[in-house]
Write a structure and sequence with these properties.
mainly beta; Jelly Rolls; 7-stranded mixed sheet; 22 strands; globular
Length: 239
């Protein structure tokens, strides 16, 4: 029998720093809930809005796989490996922090908000050589189906990370159903609704709601509205 946990959008941690308006699905910074530390290897799911011309100053990370998914606007990235890049909607960015990395992220636009997800996944290897990568996806490849954006394999579609985790994005018309088969035994799926409404495992999920599902080998999702968008994160449950 599958197990589920639901995190409604309004139950997330929230902080408004003026330049940054952020919601935390899991404990982060000043938001701490011992019941919401992680979902398996998924440690952080932050839903960030950064004001025009503002951003995160240079700060360190280590031993974490960090995935950024821009939803609106342009985000400029600079890091201690010498990378300078701009990521925008349609791009996926990954950093393996490994032995240590320092980076900054800024909204380079003077007029528009930047909206992006920052996701941390606990790695299955410690102290790897730090690494940066980004790719641009074709959004048409996820219309009424799931498009893989993250995997453990450098040769697979999407970016790769040091963990047996697979991420997929999908944009669905109303009443479209899709089945996702979990890639590895012992993994679970955390589904996060970006837009619209979905029925998942008997639950109604709305924009920015999340549901974790484990002890199952497949998950079925059904879009309840046109243009519904969802992110599925297939991660090990034991860490």
């Amino acid at each position: 029998m599958s197990k589920t946990i639901i995190h409604k959008a309004e139950s997330r941690g929230h902080a408004n720093h003026g330049w940054l308006d952020t919601h935390h699905t899991f404990s982060f910074a000043n938001y701490y809930d011992p019941e919401r530390m992680h979902f398996g290897a998924l440690r952080v799911l932050n839903d960030d809005r950064v004001n025009p011309g503002m951003g995160f100053g240079t700060h360190p990370h280590d031993n974490m796989e960090i995935i950024s998914i821009p939803l609106e606007g342009d985000l400029e990235h600079k890091d201690s490996m010498g990378n300078v890049a701009v990521i925008k909607h349609g791009d996926i960015q990954v950093m393996s922090a490994g032995t240590g990395i320092r980076h900054s992220e800024y909204n380079r636009n003077k007029e528009m908000l930047v909206k992006f997800l920052q996701i941390w996944v606990l790695p299955n290897k410690k102290n790897v050589t730090p690494r940066y990568d980004q790719i641009t996806l074709n959004a048409k490849d996820r219309h009424n189906k799931l498009q893989q954006i993250v995997s453990p394999n450098p040769d697979d579609e999407g970016v790769w990370i040091h963990q047996d985790a697979w991420f997929n994005l999908g944009t669905f018309d109303k009443n479209i159903t899709a089945e996702y088969k979990i890639k590895k035994e012992g993994n679970g799926v955390y589904a996060f609704v970006l837009k619209g409404n979905f029925g998942i495992e008997g639950a109604e999920l709305n924009e920015r709601d999340g549901i974790g599902i484990w002890d199952t080998d497949a998950v079925t999702i059904e879009s309840d509205t046109d243009g519904s968008e969802i992110l599925l994160m297939d991660v090990p449950m034991k860490i």
